[in-house]
Amino acid sequence: MYRDLVILLYVSFDLVKCFALYLFKLIWYLAM
Predict the structure, then answer these.
(1) Which of left, alpha, beta for 11 (phi over 0: left; psi -120 to 50: alpha)?
(2) Cα–Cα distance between 11 and 5 in angstroms, integer?
(3) What letter does residue 1 receive in the DSSP assignment?
(4) Which of 5, 23, 25 is nearest to 13 (CA)?
(5) What is the pLDDT, as a whole number, of residue 1?
(6) Per-residue pLDDT of the chain (32 residues; tens, 9 = 90+)
(7) What pLDDT shows up at residue 23?
(8) For the chain, how many structural domains are there in total?
(9) In whole angstroms, what is the distance from residue 31 CA to residue 7 CA?
(10) Which domain, by its residues, includes 29?
């Protein structure tokens, strides 16, 4: 159970990172 929680946390963190990168690119393109 603990391991599943860690994996879930890792995956969600990865998703947040990808989403933040996408938002950053979008804002950068709009600012150009």
Answers:
(1) alpha
(2) 10
(3) -
(4) 5
(5) 76
(6) 789 999 999 999 999 999 999 999 999 999 98
(7) 97
(8) 1
(9) 36
(10) 1-32
Structure tokens at 25: 């690119």
pTM of the model: 0.59
Q: In 3D, which of 11, 13, 4, 32 has the Cα closest to residue 21?
A: 13
Q: What is the dihedral of CA 19, 20, 25, 30, to 10 degrees?
A: 100
Q: Give the Cα-Cα-Cα angle 24, 27, 31 (nearest 5 degrees).
A: 135
> Residue type for 16, please?
V
For residue 19 the two structure tokens come to: 């989403």
What whole-number distance in Å separates Cα of residue 10 and Cα of residue 3? Answer: 11
pLDDT of residue 29: 95
